[in-house]
Amino acid sequence: MKIVKLEQFHADMGWRPASFLKITTDEGLVGWAEYAENFGAGGVSDLLRRFEPIIQGLDPREVGKITASLQAITRLAAGGLNNQAIAAIENACLDIKAKALGVPVYALFGGPFRTRLPVYWSHCGSFRVRFADLFEKWGKPRVETLDDLKTLGQEAVARGFSAIKTNPLFVENGRLKMFEGGFRLYPKLLERNIDGAFIGAITDMLAAFREGLGPQTGLMLDINFSQRTEGFLRIARALEPFDLTWFEIDMHDPQALAHVRRSSRVPIASLESIHGLRGYRPYFEEGAADVAVVDVPWNGLWESVRIATLADAYEVNCAPHNFYGTLASIMSAHFCAAIPNFRIMELEVDDVPWRDEFVTVPPTLEKGEFVLPTGPGWGTEVNEEALRARPWPKR
What we know:
Elements: E1 3-12, E2 17-25, E3 30-35, H1 44-55, H2 63-73, H3 80-101, E4 116-122, H4 126-130, H5 132-137, H6 146-158, E5 163-166, E6 169-172, E7 175-178, H7 196-213, E8 218-222, H8 229-239, E9 246-248, H9 254-262, E10 268-270, H10 276-286, E11 291-294, H11 296-299, H12 301-313, E12 317-320, H13 326-338, E13 345-348, E14 364-366, E15 369-371, H14 384-389
Parallel strand pairs: 4-13, 5-8, 8-9, 9-10, 10-11, 11-12
Antiparallel strand pairs: 1-2, 2-3, 4-15, 6-7, 14-15
């Protein structure tokens, strides 16, 4: 079996694209992977085009060999977009290998450890605030006040979710506004200095959510790269009364992250922006996180399982970073099923109404649990007709 062609598809996902890689073999087997092309200047698609002549003629079932070869070629610029392009190829090749064997991808790694995966509602409230006009058009009520957050928490409980995760939402001119520090050119972004108003807004928001969720449902807060060590630590200490499942932060300094973890009683989740086994190792050595967040589209499922194995040796659980589309969610579900040290799966509950149209077998969500697919490969195919019907950039 040989790789003969790579194709890319980009479909409309409302406020961002959904990008897909299709690898075709000379025997007619096809492998799919969803990847991210909406960070910074992008460029993953261009790298995939550059990698195509390198992997043409190779056997896609030799997944590890292909990944290791591409990593060797890019060693002087390891990580980043190179890593993400290699991961897309790895994931599509895993789909082919599993289909050739007639088994699900997770079976290649000894899974499944479980067939139902608890999920949490990611960006709960955040996206309904940030993209209010879009969600109102799709029939979702606006989230404008702290009382609305309480109501949203009650909705999450009624729908069976065991946990939700949100981002800082501040009241500005009488309405909630999503804070995007770390990703946008906000005032004082470069300094990233914390103040009492910032902390007060976060605690007010979490108090509203906790009132709606009650004491049993998990609550997480994600503030990404928005602070330096001092700010993360002050916020972490302010969060202690809310019994968070975790406080999610991003830092590229293992020692500083470990200092935050040791200095507060709030569990820390992190590392979603790290690439590769070697990238994760110093964070585990420092004891920097209670939960290691692993991005399957960025790292590739094979590499992600290796990262989880290393995490297991340090008694650390893993959770996937998954704010993409349906195929990526299914890919992340295979990761969750293939490792023993799984914590909980991220899922975008608030999304475009047509999200599941892009796959032939949509996933099943029951009482806050993701039902693991059982078919060969990822357990679904990509609907190319649906992708072409909703192109990106939008017409």
